[in-house]
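User: I'm writing a short report section on ligand binding and want a predicted complex to refer to. Could you take this sequence and magnesium ion and write out the structure as tokens? A short remark afterwards would be nice.
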Amino acid sequence: MTRNPLVQVRGLSKRFDVSPPWLNRIIEGKPRQLLQAVSEVDFDIERGQTLALVGESGCGKSTLARLLVGLYAPSQGEVLFEGANLHDTLAQPQGRALRRRMQMIFQDPYASLNPRWRVRDIVAEPLWVHQTVKTQAQCLQRVGELLESVGLNPLDANKFPHQFSGGQRQRISIARALASQPEFLVCDEPTSALDVSVQAQVLNLMLDLQRERGLTYLFISHNLAVVRQVSDQVGVMYLGRLVEMASTETLFSQPRHPYTRMLLDAIPKLRPGSQTRLPVQGEVPNPLSPPSGCAFHPRCPQATDLCRQQRPEMKNFQGIRIACHAVA
Ligand SMILES: Nc1ncnc2c1ncn2[C@@H]1O[C@H](COP(=O)(O)OP(=O)(O)O)[C@@H](O)[C@H]1O
Ligand code: SF4
Ligand SMILES: [Mg+2]
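Assistant: Sure. The structure tokens for the complex follow:
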């Protein structure tokens, strides 16, 4: 499918058991309940590129992110990192070397930084874990370099997380992620918690780091304007499934899936000439009882009987991938 993929996702699914407690099931006769958070997802991420995932809250983006760095085990399918099964490799002794190569950056930098640690200890921890430094002096030197590489002052090493603004805290998380010299960064809504004015600064930093270090990104955001600026490819998810995948340029200039169009219509600036913003219509269905056929049919203006009965398969169509009966 692509020429030099670093990450390949094959038929990836994740189910969560959300059953009531065992005793309630027996006494109240309640059944076991499985929530299908991610279903049969396939894609490749080219080395040095950015794949963005978009879709409304609850569509499985964070679950997919965690599967991609090995924080969750797949229920079905697999993630390949440089052609090797990620989950199997992480379970083996050489898994530690692989873990170093992929890092995750979360939405809330404050929650992901230990408030009682000084910045130097936060950034230094991966250096010790992966044995990239041997002495305290080396460590301090390296922490200073890492802080500089994300636009902070080496003297910030002595401060605590609460002494920084939100944007600076996200820079600290990025410095910590870079400490293990990763090749693959999974960024789950990295700027969503930040003020609009600092979002662009953090995004520019991420783009500069990608250029300098040849990093590969999975970038998750519900902000399509941001996605358009940072990504090479975009995957649109709906209720755990990928419904459209295209190059960023194609997706924004020629969105084809009715759901992608609905998302784009909600942003006035993306469609030249159209001032009216059409709010996203309808609500995301309950994932415990997904609609029959195409899960988007209750909200889709183009839905037919076929859509209600039969789930559309993902197909290759004019250089994109799409799952919709009305296209192709
Ligand atoms: N650990 C979990 N246990 C049970 N259900 C979960 C868990 N994590 C996520 N879910 C459910 O899986 C679905 C996808 O969630 P998530 O991946 O967080 O979506 P997104 O990041 O796109 O908002 C949601 O219905 C959510 O409630
Ligand atoms: S398959 Fe049918 S319901 Fe689903 S998005 Fe396409 S037209 Fe709409
Ligand atoms: Mg999420």
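A remark for your report: Residues 38 and 64 are 7 Å apart (CA to CA). The radius of gyration is 21 Å.
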